[in-house]
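User: quick one, fold this
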Amino acid sequence: MRLAIIGAGKWGQALYHAYQQNNEVVITSRSSKDIENFVTLDEALDCEYLIMAIPAQAVRGWMEENFKDRNQKLLVAAKGIEVQTGNFLNEVYGSFVEADRLAFISGPSFAAEVQNSLPTALKISSTNLALAEVYAKALPSFIKGYVDSDVIGAEVAGAYKNVIAIAGGVCDGLALGNNARAALISRGLVEMTRFGEHFGAKSETFLSLGGAGDLFLTASSELSRNYRVGFGLAKGKTLEMILEELGEVAEGIPTTKALYTIAKKEDIYLPIADEVDKMLEGKDPMVCVRDLLNG
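Assistant:
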């Protein structure tokens, strides 16, 4: 199988490491990187199978400016909701590519651990199960691949867990204890399920690798960028300071904004996402905790 990774950030490079074990893989990005098999964008787009590791908020602009449709199949590796429109990524990519050429990867997977070939389990979701199987079977032996057809569920879970991860970082940054973190994560799971079901996702998706699995990992580890955003807020740092220290995209920030807007429009009860949004706007984290407990 010959495929190309579009985007050479940490997750893009981790997927490059994984997929090159059993396949012919090239990689490209906006700026040149010293990576084996780094190619031009045009060379990458010649591959039949693509893995799109472009940050969620940059997808539409990138596709408009750079994508050349050669009947490729796309595996979307980013997670998030487009903040300007409230569109899920399947809707954004669906503006350029038919649904049966799209698949979405999710599951508990820190890039550093995939890069080190540590055991991992991931899920590939697509309305085209045959395509999902192609991407799953191309995974290396240290990654167990599962497939399903609930694209909306995978999208919501992958995006929402980053918002709960910000709250998890706040919880630990304030030293609220294990009881509080467990309560936060479990209620976060309920909240993301409520949101997903509103848009037609299957409830069981949120108990799977891409739901509970990814949520538990991301909301409780300093390896998570979004967790570190929350931890920094709890320590009194400004959002600007935190992002400068990270030097990377934290998708939970724009996703929180998108969730807040969607919840108001659709009248969906999202108390944790609501308080995270207020924290990002400057509300004192401890006051947010108090208001959640008393809400």
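User: anything notable?
Assistant: The chain is about 50% helix and 10% strand.
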